[in-house]
Amino acid sequence: MLSGRALVIAVPFAFLLVFFLFPFFIVGKISVSEMETVSFKDLLSWSDGVVTLALRFSNYAFITEDPLYFKTYLASLQYALATTLLCLFIGYPFAYFMARARPTLQPALLMLVMLPFWTSFLLRVYAWRGLLTEGGWVADLIIGSGLDQLLYSFGLIAAPAKLMHTPFSLVLGMTYTYLPFMILPLYGNLAKLDLRLLEAAADLGATPWVAFWKITVPLSKAGIIAGSMLVFIPCVGEFVIPELLGGPETLMIGRVLWDEFFSNNDWPMASSVAVVMVLLIIVPVAIFNKYQAEAQERIK
């Protein structure tokens, strides 16, 4: 009979095993299988008393040979990183303001952050199409202020006054969509910050700016990491936003997966692309967590 503590730990682990790890193994199995019309050949076969294990790694070899996959993986990582940095740049001041606001005002600010979740994700992305196309008030504001010329000089749009289906519209849409995922962990971390540390720093002669960089930012590192992971990981595999707001120049790995699954009907190839994408995310995160745990052990 499991104890209460073991049961509390076992339930979420069982959930992850059934709904995350097991499906990933299925995808991994398909990636090394050979497709026969609408079915897959068995990896294990029995013939004349001999068991044969047939693993097909040609899809992984093709990924390394075709520059399309390298470009889309790299583009996905670049757009995800740019979105994460923008969310951090915008979200940190807002989370800091929420944590320092009056207790009576904090619930209202928290509701404002969560308010977009009350509307369909797809509807919000479609709304940005209307705002950024010709005649949309956001497009008129950007063009009227001359910001489109600046965006064009940085290569974020294809031509002045052309805002849709560009890297600018893609990153703008992802930043808007995933900004709450950055703000909420930061707010939870900053709200628990011991303000006596800042008072002590001020008594020792530190300016507010120095105290912010030397005390507030280091102590909020856990919130920064959590928010960055919550933004970066889904952005890498994002499909809807690049499809609606991006264009041919903003091809990301999610679109390639869609084409392999449903246009080419090549499930083993699509599964191989998905496995590589997951490994590109998991391996750096695992290495980072390892060094983070070692650093905390050294501090103790």
Can you give me a brief rundown of this structure?
The chain is mainly alpha-helical. Helix content is 73%, strand content 4%.
Write up what this structure looks like.
It is a single chain. This protein is mainly alpha-helical. It has a domain at 66-265: MetI-like (MetI-like fold), CATH 1.10.3720.10. 73% of the residues lie in helices and 4% in strands. It is built from 14 helices and four strands. The protein has helices spanning 4-31, 58-65, 67-100, 106-114, 121-132, 137-145, 147-153, 167-190, 195-203, 208-219, 221-236, 240-245, 253-263, 267-299; strands at 35-36, 39-40, 44-47, 50-53. The protein has a two-stranded antiparallel sheet. A hairpin with a 2-residue loop joins β1 (35-36) and β2 (39-40). The protein is globular and about 85 Å long.
